Please model this.
Amino acid sequence: MNYRTDADYKAVADTVPVFCAHDKIVDIKKLIPNPRNPNTHPEDQIALLAQIIRQTGWRAPITVSTASGYVVKGHGRLLAAKSLGLKRVPVDYQNYASEAEEYADLLADNRIAELAEIDRQQLAEIFAEVDMDDVPIELTGYTDETLRELTDGLIDAINEEGYEGDDWFENRERYDNDDLDEESEEYQEFIEKFEAKRTTDDCYTPDIVYDAVADWVANEYNLDRKNFVRPFYPGGDYQSYKYKKNAIVVDNPPFSILSEILAWYMENGIKFFLFAPALTLFSSASAAAGCALPVGVGVTYENGATVSTSFLTNLEDKDLRIRTAPTLYAAVRYANEENLREQHKELPKYSYPDCVLTSAAVQRYSKYGVDFRVSVKESCPISALDAQKEYGKAIYGKGYLISERAAAERAAAERAAAERAAAHRWELSEREQDIVRGLGMQ
Model:
């Protein structure tokens, strides 16, 4: 594998630099797209890829199978290179054990990326904290509109919380936290956006789930829970932890270094019963002695991630490598369901008279195409109703008292929005539209 050299600049048409590892710089005419590639590349995607290559150079090569000679990964980049008039491109040659393996890589190239989820908080923090002014937003794959939709005001709020960096959007809405109703559904959704995000290694276990596991371990192995220790909670250093003589580790460790942890515990003679990722359970267990309990029960951790969870332990007989644990599965599943029910308790919802107007109400009218307007002389700003003040409540985001005439129009707007929300609109096909256009023409 080679990295960019001065020769590479000359080897690629239009002097597009190569910054990625590759095997060769290859004549673009020699590359053959796989004729059975199911991944399509629309024109706007090709245009974006071309813009990225032209402005930032080659950051990933085109992968070609040594067996079939077909392009496996990088069909879109190949089309983009052709649109730029490039004559040579960086290529990485791969040996596949079978045709099936080659197609699996081809199919996964686009599909796995589609399965990714966006952490909106992290996305917002990037645009709030990193100076992105020197890079066109299109190169990120986002537009101002999609960024607004995904971050939903987070960028603005982060900037207001004191992060360095300029505002990404102009005329941003400002949140007045003093006026938020702390028991309202809107307020709860708002503050949840700013809770600290944890990594996969910080999947802290809900107490109810941990207790279910600890109780099972105590009963199954006739142990005293007083001897159970949690060196990984919250984020402790397991090697520096002071283990007492009778200590038994019952905890959820960082999955990324699980094999290292197992080996260290076995080497130091420390007893353990550890949470482990179900899908890679055996690969983790193979690094050290111990017994695997492939329970595979879904656990929703405190960071919101639901992980299929199993367990590893050295509390079993040394000759036992794998065992099932149906009662453990049932206990953890029940505890997890109880935890989710507790988390999803319905928050109180409030309604207001027609003469009280909130931003959320007007947004709903816009969504369903209802025209509604209020003049300055028919509205008065208000942060809370007198009835709310004695309970310490307020209108989320403030609101307006509106005249009786405007309130009557608002009631009509409510009815229209409700009707349109309940209606399903069937669309005409092209064939039916042609028929409609032809009606009355004869």
